[in-house]
Amino acid sequence: MLEARRLSLSKRGRRLLDDVSLTLSPGELLIVLGPNGAGKSTLLKLLSGLWRADAGDILLSGHPLAAMRGAELAGWRAVVEQHSVTPAGWRGEELVAAGAYLYPASPPSLVRNTVANALRLTEAEELASLRLTELSGGQRQRLQLARALCQLLLSPRPERYLLLDEPTAAQDFAMADTLMARTKELARRLNIGALAVVHDLNLALRHGDRVLLLNDGRSAGCGVVDDMMRLDRLETVYGIRLAELSHPEQSLRAFVPLSATHSPKA
Ligand SMILES: Nc1ncnc2c1ncn2[C@@H]1O[C@H](COP(=O)(O)OP(=O)(O)OP(=O)(O)O)[C@@H](O)[C@H]1O
C-alpha cells in the first residue's frame, strides 16, 4: 500500500498543502479532485518523490519513500506529469521505450513486446512511428502514459503505483472516457495502484474507486465515490451551484454547473 501521512508543504511563505493524508492500494483507482490551485499537483509531486514535504511521511509497502534513491523509486512508481518535455526528434516508440531505461539488461525482445503492449493499452499504436514534434498534445499525452506503463510492466517490484497528473486534460470527450476506463481496468488486472488528478467530475464519478477532495491545500474528504461525490460537498468545494442528473434507465448520474455563481479564490 502507498500511504501518505499528514503531509504539509510551504513555499515562499505560503502553505500549499496542510495535513493531507491518503492511502492507495494495489488494484484501485483513486481520483484526486479539487479546484484550481487546491494543491493537487503539489500532492502528486510529493507522492512521486520529486518534492519533499516539510512534515509528514510517505510509505511504499511500509518503506519510507524519503530513503529511496532514484532508480529504486522508479521501480515502485511511474509518473506522468502535467507538462512533460518530449525530446525533439524522437518518435513515439522511442518515448515509450524510455520507460525501459532502468532495465538495460532486459532482453530486447521483452522490451519490444512491452513497448508494443503499452502502446496497445493506451490506444497509441498508430503513433509509434511518428515524430513527437508532429503529434497533437493529446497524442503526446497518450504516449507519456504508455511510457509510464512500460516502466511499471518491466518492474520486478511486488507493488507498483501509477501517478497521473491530468492524464485526460488534452483528450477529447470519448478518448478521455476510454483512457480512464483503461486505467481502472489496468489497475485491477495488473494489481497496480493508480492515482489520477482530474478536473472532470463525471470521469471521477464513472471510473473512480475512491476520491480524494482537496480544497485550499487541505483534504475535504477521502472515501468511496458515492460518499465523496455528493452535491452539497461538491458545491462547497467548488463554490458553485450544481445540478445532479440521472439517466432514466441506466444507473448513471452526472453533475452539471447550474449558474455562474462561481467565486474563484485566486
Ligand atoms: N513552485 C512553487 N512555488 C510556490 N508556489 C507554488 C509552486 N507551485 C505551485 N505553487 C502554488 O501552490 C498552489 C497549489 O498549486 P498546484 O499546482 O498544486 O494546484 P492544482 O490543484 O494542481 O491546480 P490546477 O488545477 O490549476 O492544476 C497554487 O496556489 C500555486 O500557485
TrEMBL record:
Residues 2-241 form the ABC transporter domain. The keyword Transmembrane helix does not apply. The keyword Cell membrane applies. CDD domains: ABC_Iron-Siderophores_B12_Hemin (cd03214). PROSITE patterns: ABC_TRANSPORTER_1, ABC_TRANSPORTER_2. It holds the Pfam family ABC_tran. GO terms for molecular function: ATP binding. Keywords: ATP-binding, Cell membrane, Membrane, Nucleotide-binding, Translocase, Transport. PANTHER family: HEMIN IMPORT ATP-BINDING PROTEIN HMUV. Part of the ABC transporter complex HmuTUV involved in hemin import. Responsible for energy coupling to the transport system. This is ATP-binding cassette domain-containing protein. It comes from Chromobacterium phragmitis. The lineage of its organism: Bacteria, Pseudomonadati, Pseudomonadota, Betaproteobacteria, Neisseriales.
